[in-house]
Design goal:
The chain is mostly helical. It folds into two domains: about 25-220, no CATH class; about 260-355, secretion proteins EscU (name from scop, 3-Layer(aba) Sandwich). It has helices spanning about 1-5, 15-25, 30-65, 80-110, 125-130, 130-140, 140-170, 180-220, 225-235, 240-260, 295-310, 315-325, 340-355; strands at about 265-270, 275-280, 290-295, 315. A four-stranded mixed sheet has the order 3-2-1-4, with helices on both faces.
């Protein structure tokens, strides 16, 4: 633990660390992008939906005013009229609400994908600790950034609103001679243009905020070298233990290989640096097979076992090197070595026949 606490977080987070952070609710996400995109898309939708909205609103208002004299409001029909008005309001505002909800979901999906967790809302002591809350609100880098963002938004919205209204204020005078429809249209168009300018400015601010949120997220999940080593041990096992296991496996493979040397037909050497033991059984093998190979000390051991078991040893430097480099233990030799190995085996068979007097 002292080693972990003394180290700085300099290592990029591993996939497992990222997954653990995601489960805890730590994801790179900018609320400003949600706000700006929802505002921008909703304004565009209202621009095309506005005529239908106005015409329907005027139609409903006309129906109400035309039937005011014949409509009686009492305890029997007030609930019916209330539900009717509520239904009409939902019909008018429903598409706008659906667009805002859909855009909000799409923007969230684009930022964090399919993601659900209750970890952030679970009760934790540091959330109710007043000292921790004070530090989080007033002393953290994130709070400072949020303060700067808030000030920038106030300045941007204020400036755009002021400059836009100042540019069209002289047009308000001519509205005195216009009817209600033209006055409403002028106000709606002016409001739309101001909203679009504000939305574009907020989109630019949101882009910078998203870059900051990504950077802050990457910094928050960085790991120390100690944490990386510990995670590697947990996932793949202790490197020292793994090295020991590999060493034992190599030793066991070497012993099995040495047990095959007495069964070999010939050992081809370099003469002392490399040794390759070959076996060929015409009944079960399509080509000679490497049953053992090694260099330096292993090559010397193969030679010793071959001498002890009277396995012929043939010195052929080029052939020994070529087979050693191109074949593993248990492999049949490639076709390009057939002729050279056949000569060696023929030589061995001739020696055996002379030995037994044939």
């Amino acid at each position: 633990m002292p080693e972990e606490n003394q180290q700085e977080r300099t290592e990029i987070a591993t996939p497992r660390r990222r997954e653990e952070a995601r489960k805890k609710g730590q994801v790179p996400k900018s609320i400003e992008i949600n706000t700006a995109v929802i505002l921008f898309i909703t304004l565009i939708f209202i621009y095309f939906y506005g005529n239908y909205f106005i015409n329907k609103s005027l139609y409903y208002a006309k129906v109400v005013f035309e039937n005011m004299e014949t409509t009686s409001i009492n305890a029997d029909n007030i609930s019916r009229y209330t539900m009717l008005i509520f239904q009409k309001v939902i019909i008018l505002l429903g598409p706008i609400i659906a667009v805002m909800l859909g855009i909000g979901l799409l923007v969230n999906f684009a930022q964090v994908g399919v993601y659900f967790t209750v970890e952030p809302i679970l009760p934790k002591w540091n959330k109710v600790d007043p000292f921790a809350g004070f530090r989080r609100i007033f002393l953290s880098k994130k709070s400072l950034v949020e303060l700067i963002k808030g000030i920038l938004k106030i300045i941007i919205i204020g400036y755009i609103g002021y400059s836009s209204v100042k540019g069209i204020v002289e047009n308000y005078i001519v509205l005195m001679d216009k009817d209600v429809y033209h006055i409403f249209s002028f106000i709606a168009h002016s409001t739309f243009m101001i909203g679009i300018k504000i939305a574009i400015a907020l989109l630019i601010l949101a882009a910078f905020d998203y870059i900051f949120q990504r950077h802050d997220y990457e910094q928050s999940i960085k790991m120390t070298k100690f944490e990386v080593r510990e995670e590697l041990k947990q996932m793949e096992g202790d490197p020292l233990i793994k090295a020991r296991i590999r060493s034992i496996q190599r030793e066991m493979a070497r012993r099995r290989m040495m047990r095959e040397v007495p069964k070999a037909d010939v050992v081809i050497t370099n003469p002392t640096f490399i040794a390759v033991a070959l076996k060929y059984d015409i009944k079960i093998m399509s080509a000679p097979t490497v049953v053992a190979k090694g260099e330096r000390l292993i090559a010397e051991k193969i030679r010793e076992i071959a001498i002890e078991n009277e396995v012929p040893i043939v010195e052929n430097k080029p052939l020994a090197q070529a087979i050693y480099k191109s074949c593993d233990v248990g492999d049949e030799i490639p076709e390009q070595f057939f002729y050279a190995v056949a000569e060696v085996l023929a030589y061995i068979y001739r020696l055996k026949r002379k030995k037994i007097g044939l």
